[in-house]
Write a structure and sequence with these properties.
Number of helices of chain B: 8
Strand content of chain A: under 5%
Distance between the termini of chain A: 58 Å
Largest sheet of chain A: none
Distance between the termini of chain B: 27 Å
Number of helices of chain A: 16
Radius of gyration of chain B: 18 Å
Shape of chain A: elongated
Shape of chain B: globular
Oligomer: heterodimer
Number of domains of chain A: 3
CATH architecture of the largest domain in chain B: Orthogonal Bundle
Number of strands of chain B: 0
Radius of gyration of chain A: 29 Å
Largest interface: A-B, 55 and 63 residues
Number of strands of chain A: 0
CATH superfamily of the largest domain in chain B: RNA polymerase sigma factor, region 2, helix turn helix motif
Helix content of chain A: over 70%
Chain lengths: 275, 186
């Protein structure tokens, strides 16, 4: 019986033709002696044959033809690509991975910084130390420029705030739900939910934990709004409102606006800005 | 994709070749969408997950180690993104998406049987664990070697064998007395 168990681990390999010849011989010899294992093997092979009846999911040629354009559109919306410019040189640059552009930009800035630093700063300053660390790779460069990330986050929070304010100010006892434009709110929420994952990743990489958490909380509430059952789903709106109150997200968005530091202040105050 | 093609594409991506990303998306979009669909069972979600995967790849190409398996890396990101997506979705269920349109049936009776079989298989796959499903799909549908699956899912080869064995046994039990199909067309 223990031999059966030991040889069992060879079965998947044999079923998919991955087994080396020596193991295949061992398994075949065992089957000659053990009809139970042979029967089990045959039953598994029949299952795999039945599973071969599955058709791959195929949404059709129109979907595949437009796949890259749809992806590119989303990447532009999420700041992954620069918006498509018209000159050919820029068009090829648009398709470069962001890390290539970021590295090139960082190298340019670094060269300019070193030049300016040499002209204006005494040796051994903090800036020179940071630049040296970046050159030798002891500190990973952030994936996204802080100013661009700050702007994206701010834009994301503002767009979320508009939706949350509309929901928050809605009073089902005194107002008609039609005035809330739930179709529009659902569609905008869906877009924001889609963007949240990437933005959270970038915030995590930039160690903006507080903002990452806030975007995560917004994602959940916006998800509730995106999934409202209909354009008159008043109970759903009330649940979303309760979620907003519970998490106090509007207050947190306002606080993030108050706390938002400028690019230079941000670098200087990094240790105390962590939560 | 042949291993040499995969290696060449990985090298082009690492060099920052401007056309490489588009070629990469074209080469892998069906497989990534297909795998995402097996997890989400929903066209809109599968599209969303597959796009998220490509965005993550685009963003983190700089961290890809030369010589590592592009396949394993890509499928690792896909499986994680799909599982992450369905966990979020189970918290906030999406509205039911329309079914994918299939070609017009040539033989309605056979199509009905086939459709029933597909539904049963999808349900059976939905009842095994995420990890078992991932191992099974990567081997059965995507033809990854056991070693590549181990790399993609951060498992040992022994664990992959064990998951694969268990997944097939469970599918066998779920599918019960299904007759074997009469061939690729039938």
């Amino acid at each position: 019986m223990s031999r059966c168990r030991k040889l069992r681990e060879l079965v998947p390999g044999s079923l998919y033709g991955d087994l080396d010849p020596a193991d295949e011989v061992r398994l075949t010899r065992h089957f000659d002696e053990c009809p139970a294992c042979r029967a089990e093997y045959d039953a598994m092979a029949r299952t795999l044959l039945a599973l071969g009846a599955r058709k791959p999911a195929d949404p059709g040629p129109a979907f595949w033809d437009g796949y890259y354009d749809a992806l590119e559109k989303r990447m532009v919306a999420e700041g992954e690509f620069a918006p498509a410019p018209s000159p050919p040189a820029a068009a090829s640059r648009r398709a470069l991975p962001r890390w290539v552009l970021a590295s090139a930009g960082a190298a340019g800035l670094l060269a300019a910084g070193i030049l300016i630093g040499r002209l204006t700063l005494p040796r051994g300053t903090e800036i020179a130390r940071t630049q040296r660390a970046a050159v030798v790779g002891t500190e990973p460069a952030p994936a996204v420029a802080p100013a661009a990330l700050s702007e994206r986050t701010s834009r994301y929070l503002n767009r979320s705030k508009v939706i949350l304010l509309a929901i928050s100010n809605f009073d089902s006892k005194t107002k008609d739900v039609a005035g809330l434009n739930l179709a529009g709110q659902r569609s905008s929420s869906r877009e924001l939910v889609k963007e949240a994952g990437v933005l959270k990743d970038d915030l995590r990489a930039a160690r903006e934990r507080r903002l990452e958490r806030l975007v995560g909380e917004l994602e959940l509430i916006l998800g509730q709004i995106a999934n409202l059952k209909s354009e008159t789903d008043v109970p759903g709106v009330e649940i979303a409102k309760a979620g907003m109150d519970l998490k106090d997200v509007l207050f947190k968005i306002n606080m993030s606006e108050v706390k938002k530091p400028g690019p230079s202040a941000k670098t200087a105050s990094r240790p105390s800005a962590k939560i | 994709m042949e291993p040499t093609d995969e290696k060449r594409l990985a090298e082009r991506l690492l060099r920052g070749d401007p056309e490489a990303f588009r070629d990469f998306v074209d080469a892998y979009k069906r497989r990534i969408y297909g795998l995402a669909f097996e997890f989400t069972r929903n066209h809109a979600d599968a599209e969303d997950v597959s796009q998220t995967v490509f965005i993550k790849i685009h963003r983190s190409m700089g961290t890809f180690r030369e010589g590592a398996s592009l396949n394993a890396w890509l499928y690792r990101i896909t499986v994680n993104a799909a599982i992450d997506h369905i966990r979020k979705r189970s918290f906030f269920p999406s509205p039911k998406a329309p079914e994918l349109v299939s070609e017009s049936p040539a033989d309605p009776e056979r199509d009905a049987v086939r459709s029933l079989l597909q539904t049963k298989i999808a349900a059976a796959l939905g009842r095994i664990s995420d990890r078992e499903r991932a191992v099974f799909l990567l081997r059965h549908d995507h033809d990854l070697s056991l070693k590549e699956i181990a790399e993609a899912l951060d498992l040992t080869v022994g664990a992959v064998k064990s998951y694969l064995f268990r997944s097939i046994k469970k599918l066998q039990k779920e599918l019960g007395t299904l007759p074997a199909p009469s061939g690729p067309g039938g």
